[in-house]
Amino acid sequence: MALEIIGISVLWLFLFGYVIVASIDFGAGFFSAYSDFAKKKHILHKIIQRYLSPVWEVTNVFLVFFFVGIVGFFPKTAYYYGTILLVPASIAIVLLAIRGSYYAFHTYGKTERNWYLLAYGLTGLFIPASLSIVLTISEGGFVEKSGETLTLLYKELFVSPLTWSIVLLSITSVLYISATFLTYYANEAGDMKARELLRKYALSWSGPTILSALLIIYQLRHHNPEHYNNMFNVAWMFVVSFVFFVITIYLLWKKKRYGWAFVSLVLQYAFAFYAYGISHYPYLLYPYLTIYDGFTNKTMAIALILAFIAGFLLLVPSLYLLLKLFLFNKKYVKGQL
Amino acid sequence: MWEYDPVLFSRLLTELTLTFHIIFATIGVGVPLMIAIAQWVGIRKNDEHYILLARRWTRGFVITVAVGVVTGTAIGLQLSLLWPNFMQLAGQVISLPLFMETFAFFFEAIFLGIYLYTWDRFENQKKHLLLLIPVAIGSSASAMFITMVNAFMNTPQGFELKDGVITNIEPLAAMFNPATPTKVAHVLTTAYMTSAFILASIAAWHLLRGNRHIYHKKALHLTVKTAFIFSVASALVGDLSGKFLAEYQPEKLAAAEWHFETSTHAPLVMFGTLDENNDVKNAIKIPYALSILAHNHPGAEVKGLNEFPKDEIPPLYIHYLFDLMVTIGVLLTIVSAIYWLGKQLKWKWIMSKPFLASLVAAGPLSMLAIELGWYFAEVGRQPWILRGYMKTAEAATSSGHVDTMLVAFSILYLILGIASVAVLINMFRKNPVEKELAERSLEQGGVS
Ligand code: HDD
Ligand code: HEM
Ligand code: HEM
User: Fold this and answer.
1) Within 13 Å and on the Cβ side, how many CA atoms surround A279?
2) Which long-range contacts (CB under 8 A, 24 or more apart) does A30-34 make?
3) How far apart are CA B420 and CA A109, in angstroms?
4) How many angstroms away from the CA of A101 is the closest CA of chain B?
5) Cα of A115 from ligand 3 centre, angstroms
6) Signal peptide position in this chain (chain B) (predicted)?
7) Contact, A220 vs A162, CB < 8 A?
8) Which residues contact ligand 1 via a Cβ below 6 A?
9) Which residues, other chains included, contact A183 with Cβ-Cβ below 8 Å and sequence gap of 6+?
10) Taking burial as the number of CB atoms within 10 A of a residue's CB, which of A63, B65, B84, B141 is the most buried?
11) What is the dihedral of CA A248, A253, A257, A262, to 10 degrees?
12) Chain Cα centroid distance, residue B30
């Protein structure tokens, strides 16, 4: 396989990892804040805290890994995206900072501030929205290149229906992924009240995710026909993805096997995410930058891949230990440790 | 007239973020080691006071980690946002350690999560202590990797540049460039030293306020002893850093020393002022000391600034940054040495108010030395961002709005700074040592 493909696949894998773990985190934060304002705090709060506490820092590293990795494998992205993303990325950084520090101050420092809690809950929706802008920009049409200068066309970006469909998908997905996972988690903890509430959330957010995904595909047809046509080459992946979606909904509906419901949700997103990525190939930024002309040299690529393998061998057992001690530890989940 | 200059604002924003991040990064590197030492001493002596010390430090530590993580994420992105041209060029050669750093973070984050939530899960405390080792290794390794990147900026190698195209890349040669050994060693030892002094300041503060609980005395003893060892190490490695500069970045050393004419038997110039002819006034001159710092020999020749093109000389004010860093380093070594000696010889006055006050000052001073050291190293590299290859001005973004971002981040750091201090103070006020000791009914401590 070409080194370029290996590189982008690894990065796409970590981005996918981030999408899943961060969605759980963001959605949990939103539900936690929402339940507080809707006077349902006693139902959800404990479950969410138990899950989030040991893992929040790990979530952030997935993102760091992605943006460091992409500059490593594709140094030209630093130039293209670095120049145009100053404002959107800075907004995301500020939101991430508010969120991360709030979480630590609140959990370890035991501070209670209502306006801060509100900010915490809302950042859970604004961060995915602001990060998803990058995907929109990568579709092309929002960057103007004249000579050596690149400019982001804010107005076009802001009024484009594509932008808003992607934002919509990111927000609904966050809520859907997170609610499905937490349903499973609450069930493990034997907290039936929380489970029922979360199951209801999961079911009600499932429809909107599919609708917004369809909306995006429809927009792409006009916005980026090349990408749209490529999607048909991997149509089977979208179909498989949809089958997994149906399985998840069925299991949630029938109140059966919540763990498998979540696994099937991950597969649903994996297939859709990879299908989207593959059909985007070969562009990193349409139409200026492809993975081929943005690629680093061969020596560095091999060094990075070797480092990745070594790092991976180190991380997998550690992550396993983390999951074993917290996520899959019945006593911990039930609050007996 | 006022003009928007993206280079200026990019520099200001980079400085702002790094100045803020380095505080938390230094604590992040050093404090896990201190926690491990305290817990280990506690287990070995079977003394619950040390275990409680480790527990309380850990609780404070998670707050600083959180701020370290969010500011680190900021600087990580800002490197590409503010210096796209630099990252595009350097990324081809030096992205390996940057990439490995994320694995170090990953490793650290996973085990920190486990460590925090398993205090009472293990029958055997030693097993719990084992979990801290990957945390300490992870944070020190991340400091090492990022410092390698910075070392590369000072002495780039491992590639060839022809007409803007980079060839013959050797990632390992780039990582292990001439600046790496001294830089990594100095950054690590000073981080351990600073963390020890900060924790010593807290203990000294309680003793100074009249709380003579044995718990604080044990804390002070442990931290100052550790700080002394790392101060000596820092000074030794600092001396080696000077020799490195003389060999590979002579213009930085010459600017730091206001050494204009190449000469032998060069004196070390401390403080003082420059007049319009660049003559040094009012300075303390230590004969031969510069020659010794540079080459370990009083008669050695030291290159002067006049040998370099005028537009490749760093700003001369770095002289004061260097002098202050070294002065703080020497003073703190002396203070901690006196404490240790006083302990051995049972001098009463090392527990007197004035001496305790100097120990309270040690933590903040040490952190100031970290900042001064970085400003010295970074400003001393100017006008280069990649010494010999790319100037800072060519590296910056051409984007508008950097000024707005500078304002936004200033506000963010101000809030984060105030909030983290408030949370820390609040956390320990609400739960004083005496209360916690009483709850655990450990007033007596253990043996020893
Ligand atoms: C507690 C902090 C601290 C203390 C007490 C010292 N330093 Fe330092 N110094 C640093 C903290 C620091 C630093 C922040 O870690 C720097 C900045 C960049 C670097 O590599 O390390 C640094 C850089 C630095 C450099 C520049 C290296 C370069 O640019 O490559 C030299 C020559 C010295 N130091 C020398 C000394 C000497 C002779 C000291 C005598 C006691 C000393 N430092 C004490
Ligand atoms: C290893 C990591 C580091 C990297 C990759 C790095 C990167 C950079 C870059 C890109 C610049 C150019 C901007 C400029 O000239 O203003 C710079 C300068 C600067 N950096 Fe670093 N830096 C590192 C470590 C640090 C740290 C830890 C500090 C701590 C405070 C720091 C402080 C500064 C300062 C003050 C300047 C400004 C120099 C001037 O005003 O002329 N740097 N650095
Ligand atoms: C340009 C320079 C730098 C960049 C790009 C950078 C990047 C980062 C990032 C992305 C994080 C957060 C990682 C996470 O999500 O867990 C972080 C945290 C950290 N950084 Fe930096 N950093 C820089 C300079 C430094 C320096 C000079 C040091 C040490 C001397 C350092 C030591 C640390 C440590 C130890 C942490 C972990 C936070 C903690 O445990 O408190 N960093 N940095």
Assistant:
1) 24
2) A30/A121, A30/A122, A30/A124, A30/A125, A30/A174, A30/A175, A30/A178, A31/A175, A31/A178, A31/A179, A31/A182, A31/A198, A31/A201, A32/A120, A32/A121, A33/A117, A33/A118, A33/A120, A33/A121, A33/A122, A33/A124, A34/A121
3) 9
4) 6
5) 29
6) none
7) yes
8) B 154, 179, 183, 186-187, 190, 193-194, 234-235, 238-239, 241-242, 245, 252, 325-326, 328-330, 366, 369-370, 373-374, 377, 380
9) A195, A198, A199, A202, A252, A258, A261, A262
10) B84
11) 30
12) 9
How far, in Å, CA of B409 to CA of B14, rounded? 10
CB atoms within 10 A of CB B390: 20
H/E run at residue B332: helix B318-345
Mutate to test the interface with A, among B21, B73, B78 (most CBs of A within 10 A): B73
Half-sphere exposure of A277 (CA within 13 A, CB side): 17
Q: Write the single-letter amino acid at B76.
A: G
A-B CB pairs within 8 A amount to 212
In this structure, what token pair is assigned to residue B174?
């780039």
The reply to whether residue A86 touches residue B405, judged by beta carbons under 8 angstroms, is yes
Q: Rounded to an integer, what distance in angstroms lies between the CA atom of residue B340 and that of residue B228?
A: 8
Backbone phi and psi for residue B112, each to the nearest 5 degrees, phi listed first: -65, -45
- Backbone angles phi and psi of B285, in degrees to 5: -110, 125
User: How many CB atoms sit inside 10 A of residue A6's CB?
Assistant: 16
B65 interfaces chain A, CB cutoff of 8 Å: yes
Q: How many other C-beta atoms are found inside a 10 Å radius of the C-beta of residue A167?
A: 20
**Distance from C-alpha of B95 to C-alpha of A305, rounded to nearest angstrom:** 12
How distant, in Å, are the alpha carbons of A323, B40, B142, B224, B383 from that of B37? 28, 5, 20, 13, 42
The residue type found at B191 is: A
State in Å: Cα B186 to ligand 1 middle.
6
- Please report, in tens digits, the pLDDT of each residue of chain A (337 residues total): 688 888 888 888 888 988 898 898 888 888 877 777 776 666 677 777 766 666 777 788 888 888 888 888 888 888 888 888 888 888 889 988 888 888 777 776 665 666 677 777 888 888 888 888 888 888 877 888 877 778 788 888 788 888 888 888 899 999 999 999 988 888 887 778 878 888 888 888 888 888 888 888 888 888 787 787 888 888 888 889 889 889 988 988 888 788 898 899 899 989 888 888 888 878 777 777 888 877 887 888 888 888 888 888 888 888 888 877 777 776 776 666 6
